[in-house]
Every structure is written in C-alpha cells, then in structure tokens.
Amino acid sequence: MNNNKVTKSGLALAVAASMLAGSGAQAAVEVYNQDGTSFSVDGYFNAFYVNRDDKVADVRNSDIKMGFLPNTIGFNFSKDMGDLTLGGRSSFWTTINDSLQSPTDTSIDVRQLYATVDGDFGQVLIGKDFGLYARSNIFLDELLMGFGSPGAATGVSFGNIRAGYPYPNPSAQITYRSPDMAGLKVAAGILEPANTTPGAGSEQSAPRFEAELTYSADLKGLSLTGWLNGRHQSSENATTKVDSQGIGYGLKASVAGLSVTASGFTSEGDVPVLISDELLASEEDADGYLLQGSYTQGANRFVLSYGETDSDQGGFETENTSFAVFHDVNSNFKLVAEYNMFEEQAKSNGATTMDANTLAVGAIVTF
Q: Where is the signal peptide (predicted)?
C-alpha cells in the first residue's frame, strides 16, 4: 500500500520483518489507487521437502509440507477521508499438509479480518488480528520463514512455539496504537477472553487485556529494537477462578550483516502454546527463552537458533536447536535449507516424549 498512514500487520509485518533481515523486500501488488482510495493484494507461497527421524517412535518419514508460515493471500484497503484514513485487511491462510486427508477441501483459516482508523492520534483497529502478547517475539523470529519444530498431529510445524515463545492468537479485539514517538510505540487493546473454567456458572466478567511497548533506534549503524508485551485475563465458575497472565520481552541488535536476538517470556495460568477455551486445572507457571544469531552476506543469510520452554502448566520441558540458510534468488523468490533438533521431556517422570531431527528444504515465493 502506498498510503503510509495504514499500519501493516499480521503476515505483511511478519514477512517484511523477516525479509528485511535478509536482502529481500516485500511489497503488495497495487490493484487500484485513485482519488484517495487504494486496494492491494499480497501473497506468500511455500513448500518444503521434509525428512524427519523420530527417535521415540523409531520411524523416519518423508513429506511435502508447508513451512511455519502457511500459504496466504491478503487483501488491503485504504481510503483517505481528510483528517482520517480508513483502512482494512482480510487474509486467508491455507495449508497444503492435508492434501491426502482432504484432497479437494483444503482447510482455510481467516486469521485477519479488521478495519483501521488512522489519524494524528495514532490508530484504532477493530476486528480480528493477531494478539499483542508475544507478538514481537514471534514476528522477529529469524526462522519465521523456515520450518521449525514438530507441531500438531496434523503435521503443522510450530517454529519456536513451545520452545521459546507462545503463540499470539488471532482474536477479536479493539486495539489502539500510538504514533511513532521518536522510535517509541505503544499498543494496547481489549480482546475476547478465553473460557478457561468451563462448567456451571462460568463467566469472564472482563475482557482480556494485552499491550506491547516497542522501541527502535539507530546508533551510528547499530540498529536496536526492544520490546515488552503482556496479557491478563480472568475466568471463573461456581468453584474455580483462574487468572491467566504473561510477560514477553526481547532485544534485537544488528550491525552490518550481523544480527543477534534474545527474547523470552514468563506466564502463570496460561499454557505456553496458545490460549483457548479449555479447562485449566491450576495457575501453574511457565517460562522460556530464545537466543538467535544470523549473518547476511550478499544473497545468503545464515541462522543459528536455540530455545527452551519449561512449563508446569503443560507438564513438559523442551529444547529446540536449528541451523538454517536462506538464499534470495531475487526479491520475490527464496530458497531455504534447515536442520532442526527438537526434544521434549515429561516433567512428571523425566521421560523423553519426543526426540526428532528434521531436515527441511524448501522454496518461498512472495508478491
């Protein structure tokens, strides 16, 4: 979009952040721009050959799957109304992993469907979008466009979810974002609360609150980005009350072609994968961290990543190590090779519940 008053988010932010770390650039295709009204389309397409050695199950499988980011097409709208700019985005996220289970009925997620109102005061977003808690933790992951750790039984990869950060669930929300104040930005919103105490008399008397503070600066060629985000909500029924809350944080420093990122989170009463309408037995703790380094030389970006999560709530400990190479064929075509080592142990008895090494080689096309 040419109108710079409209704030990009979701896929556009995620892909842009990741590609800017390399030598590429992400830009939507402008379909219409006349009389203050614009409409554009962006897309993200990827597929990986995946070879996984599951040591616990003692099996090795080869698959063709999408990476951590699903294949996506998004539509962006903007209209200049004088002192205000009205905008919006709808995006559709699809999987290719169900090609044999649902050959002609591929699953489609609508993770973004929102409108924005921009002015000198900042921006107000209404609709469905990714949350603010852990938002920068995941969108600034150096392996966002890679494959990552094993995930759900459906074969979806999890990146570093549950091995360094939780997922910022797409949720119904009303969110305010401040203007850029010399590098400082503030976002705060109310979101649909999760029912974590289903049963007789279950209620969520207040919305879920989430916020994020980010700061960016350039100190004579050293680029710094820091962030702090959080979430709080309560749910109760006739016998139980669960307060869910978490704090995420991180710092990214880049100079020349070198980039170093450290991030982490700590939470209570909140499963460190995603918050949902699901019974939580208690307000147990969880925490995790992610350390990453990357080096860009010409069209190539080399990434080393290590993350851990320790969850009393989920009853597991994980560690995830990844090595990856990203090669820009051009600004819209990227090749990826990644080797991932993921291990999970049950906290109750120390048993290894997953020990998998994964080789993923793929290609990404964006527009």
A: 1-27
- Considering the segment(s) 50-64+116-366 as one domain, its CATH architecture is Beta Barrel (2.40)
- Using DSSP's 3-state secondary structure scheme, residue 326 falls into strand
- Would you place residue 35 in the very low, low, confident or very high pLDDT band (cuts 50, 70, 90)? very high
Which runs of E-coded beta strand occur in 55-183? 59-65, 71-81, 84-94, 108-119, 122-130, 170-177
Q: H-helix or E-strand containing 139?
A: helix 135-139
Provide the 10 A C-beta neighbour count for residue 165. Answer: 28
Residue 5: pLDDT over 50: no
- Please give the Cα distance from 186 to 136 (Å, whole number): 13
Task: Give the DSSP H or E segment for 17.
Answer: helix 11-20
Q: Is 118 helix (H, G, I), strand (E, B) or coil?
A: strand
pLDDT digits (tens, 9 = 90+) for 73-114: 999 999 999 999 999 999 999 989 888 888 777 878 899 999
pTM: 0.91
User: For residue 6, is pLDDT > 50?
Assistant: no
3-state secondary structure of 204: coil
pLDDT for the residue numbered 23: 38
Residue 20 DSSP symbol: H
Q: Is 208 exposed, middle or buried (0-12, 13-18, 19+ CB in 10 A)?
A: buried
Give me the residue spans of the domains in the chain: 50-64+116-366
Calculate the average pLDDT of the chain: 90
Of 365, 295, 360, residue with least CA distance to 328: 365
In this model, does residue 301 exceed pLDDT 60?
A: yes
The CA angle 340-352-59, to the nearest 5 degrees, is 60
Alpha carbons 156 and 162: distance in angstroms, whole number? 13
Tell me how far apart the alpha carbons of residues 193 and 171 are, in angstroms, rounded to a whole number.
Answer: 9
